[in-house]
Amino acid sequence: MPFEDDLGAVMRRTGETFRPSDRPGLVDGGLIRGRHRLARRRAVAVTGSVLALTVVGVAGGYMTGALGSDGGQSSAAASAGPTAPASDSASAETGGVTEERMIETFKGLLPEGRTTREDGSGITKDPKGQLHGPYVHLVFDDGRGAAAMGLGVSVVDPAGESAADSVTCPSQALMQHDACNEETLSDGSRYMLFQGYEYPDRREDTKVWRATLVTSEGVKVDASEWNAPAEKGAQVSRPIPPLTATQMKALVTNEAWRTIGAQLGRPDGAAVNRVLASLLPGDLKIVDQQGEPGYGFVVADDGRGASFIQVNAQTGMGDLSQDVFAGDVTTLPDGTKVMVKKETDPDQKGGAGAVGWTVDTLRPDGFRVVMMAFNAPGQGQDASRAEPVLTIEQMRTIVLDEKWRTAAA
C-alpha cells in the first residue's frame, strides 16, 4: 500500500498501546494546517484526558519511501510481514488480486527492459475484515542503468483533504523540485506528476519522479521511479529515471489499476469534522474545521467567543475498558461506558485561563468516541470565553450518536 496509508496504519496500531503514563510526551496539539501537510498522519490514541495527535512530515516525508525502502528490498507495507499463499476462499475475498498479478500487470506496462528484485503484495484482509491495497516494487533496467520503481493502489474519499493533498504540488519554498504539474482529466480524475529529489536538501543526487492519480470514484494510483537501483543508499545509475512524463501518466491511468482498485470497496469513512459539524446545535457558527476518518476538529462560536472541539472515533478499543475507563464512570443499560472530566490546562500547553471538558465513551464492541471541548479557539491558546461552547449534556448526546460509526478509524 502507499507509504502514507501504511504509516497511518502502523501509527494507529502503536497508538492503541499507549496508556496514561505516556501523556506528557504525546500531546502535540491539533492538525498542522496548510497544503504542505502532504504526509501527515496521526496516532489516534487518547491517553488520560488528552487527545494525542502525532503529525508526521511537513514536506520532507512526502516524497520519500512511498513504495519501498531498505535499499529497494522491501515495501513500506512490509511491516505487515510476509504474505502467505492465498487459499481459494481468501483469493475470492480479495478479488483475486495477488502479488503475482500485481507484478505481472506492472511489468506488462513497462517498456522493453529487464526486471529484478521483484516484490509486492496483493489485496490483503486484516483480522478486522478491512481490505488493504496492493503494491508492487522492482528494479528496472532498460539498458541505460538500473532504477527502482513501484506502484500502489488504494482508495480515498475523492472529495476529502487527503485526496486533494496527494495531487497538489508542493511549494518550492517547502520542497525544492525540478517540475510539478497538476491537471484534471476528462473523466474528472485528478493527476499530478512531481519531478524532484529523494532528499529535498540535495545531499545526494537521487531523483524521484512520482505520478499520482485519484479517480472520481476514489481509486488512488501512486507510482514512483528513481534514477538509482534503490530509493536511498545506492549510487545514482543514470541521469534521470527511466520513464518519461508521458509514460508515467500512461502507467497510472491504465484501466487495469482502476479495475484492481474497485476490488477494495468503498473509500475510507467520512471525515470526523463533517460528522461533528452535522451534530452541533444549529445556532453555532463554524469558523474553522479540519479532519479525516478517525480524527477531526471544529472551532465553533455562539457569538460569545470561539471554542475548539476535537473528536476521535476508533474501533477495536475494548482493551481500554479497565485502564482508561476507571473512576467516575457511568455504564448505560446497553453496556456503554461514559466518563466525564472537567480540567484546567487540559492539553498541558498552558493557555491562560483554559479549561477543557471531556466526554469519553466506549461501547461493548470496543467502539470508542471521545470529545474534548475547550473554552479557547485552539490548543495551547488563551481562553476566549468562560466555558466551552457546549454543555456536558450536549457533548454526551453528540458522542453517543450512531453517525460516528461512519467516521471511525
UniProtKB/TrEMBL annotation:
Region (Disordered): 69-98
Biased composition, class Low complexity, residue ranges: 72-92
Keyword Transmembrane tagged: yes
The organism's place on the tree of life at top rank: Bacteria
Keywords per UniProt: Membrane, Transmembrane, Transmembrane helix
Transmembrane segments: 43-63
The protein's name in its UniProt record: Uncharacterized protein
The organism of origin for this protein: Streptomyces xantholiticus
Source taxonomy: Bacteria, Bacillati, Actinomycetota, Actinomycetes, Kitasatosporales
